[in-house]
Predict the 3D structure of the following.
Amino acid sequence: MKNFVILGAGTAGTTVANMLRRKLPSDWSLKIIDPDTDHLFQPDLIFIPFEMQTPEKTIRPRKGTLGKGIEWIQRPVQRVDADKNQVILDGDERVPYDLLVIATGSHIRPEETPGLLGDEWQKSIFDFYTLEGSVALRDALKKFEGGRVVVNTVEMPIKCPVAPLEITFLAESFFTEKGIRDNVELTYVTPLDGAFTKPIAAKALGGILDDRDIKVEAEYNASEVDVDRKVLRSYDERDIPFDMLITIPTHMGAGFIEESGLGDELAFIPTHRHSLIADNHDNIFVLGDATDLPTSKAGSVAHFQAEVVVDNVMHLIKGESPKAVFDGHANCFIESGYGRAMLIDFNYDQEPLPGVYPLPTVGPFPLLKESRFNHWGKLMFRHVYWHALLPGHPIPVPNHMSMVGKKRPGKLTTDAELAS
Amino acid sequence: MPVVEYAGSSIEVNDEGFLVDSSQWTPEVAEAIATGNGIDELNDQHWKVITFCREDAAKQGTPPGLRRISKNSGVNMKELYQLFPKGPGKLAAMVSGLPKPQGCI
Ligand SMILES: Cc1cc2nc3c(=O)[nH]c(=O)nc-3n(C[C@H](O)[C@H](O)[C@H](O)COP(=O)(O)OP(=O)(O)OC[C@H]3O[C@@H](n4cnc5c(N)ncnc54)[C@H](O)[C@@H]3O)c2cc1C
């Protein structure tokens, strides 16, 4: 009997497990290891603070997400001994593997920034990347009557890199609808050199923050929080006072990756950008947020990567070389407030362009532009996630990014056309 | 795309001053970009950073972030700000002949 072992039963691990259980030859066993009882649908974390979704509806028992033939070991991984091909659990119990998939995601580490976890944590300083954080922010927003609200990304990379923008837009629209917008000063603070850094997106969307009177503080690398004075500090000593700080803390891969010597300085695993095989171990695949790849850490990416990993696993098992190729494809809906959203579609080489997705001319989703359709698309994704993506069913969008339906603004495209 | 004269050769840069073709980079080009951006002279510490950034970007396909630079180049965060004032991530990338560090949008 040969052993196939998957670490992490989140978006990526669950999808791979459910696809493989129908494909693995009968002399292979399939195990997945994850300590958490429930599966959390993370995209809803941006809606909970504004009571656009309830915490109960964002989680489902993990048991129901894993199909027949998958053995779930409900314990945390302590270490991987890649030389011996063993996963080590608590009590030094060892799970041997022939092929391993690491899909243990990316996790916030507020303790990396002095002051974040001090007396103001979940009083005036909030994260929304965890269920507890998102619920605490909801409760604080209910009572909030005005003041300085600061949204800060501590450092890149983070998962769902558009979520800081989304929370800012949703907050702006929430304050307006609550009738307290005039009492709120809203500032978007980013380590990048602007809210939009890609030239075509910057051109198409650059004005949107200004229009909504959202201030931007760019190239800002937060070093600490002065808790007594309620001030955010940067390495170049720019002080930003706040009444409410919404932080997106430093992200890192799972702790055991550091222990196992498998990761980089943020415990993300060096991974081959096309085959998704770990750089230093040819029987380990890595996908989802756990890789060091220069594409977005997003559920859509985890899905495209899952198809590539499963193809390459089957090639290896048949004694062939891994042929499937990941191109960095990502697409993300970006909530922009007032019942609208934007959509971007891109890969390693191609920045987000305007146009329509997924079908030329008919779309129906417009790219790089606000629309109600996109907001519905984002809400519809919940259903797709639980019923098609996680169970590993085919989803009718191409795996590789396509240029069909996209328009590259060239010399003949005027700004007015781009903005229309 | 604008073309600038750096160290006696014509180099294509984008609107923000980043090299369009990283292979056109030479140490002299780095010196020229640095002086044009408020750095008087590139010292050994600057070169530690530049060397790391170029090697890392060749492997990763993207310019390294500040934490990655400070953990691996032997130059700490505070010093990065002294060496490459204002935005060290962006300026170190520019001097190293790499593209601007970007988000996904
Ligand atoms: C606020 C927010 C909004 C988002 N919005 C979107 C969106 O609109 N669209 C989109 O596509 N994506 C979105 N994402 C990103 C998306 O949720 C992730 O990219 C996706 O879940 C990644 O899948 P993964 O399997 O790599 O990681 P996860 O789904 O996070 O799974 C990791 C799993 O590993 C397990 N694990 C961790 N440590 C261990 C250990 N030691 N041993 C065993 N198991 C372990 C965890 O319990 C978890 O189940 C959002 C994320 C957030 C936080």
Residues 44-60 of chain B form the longest helix (17 residues).
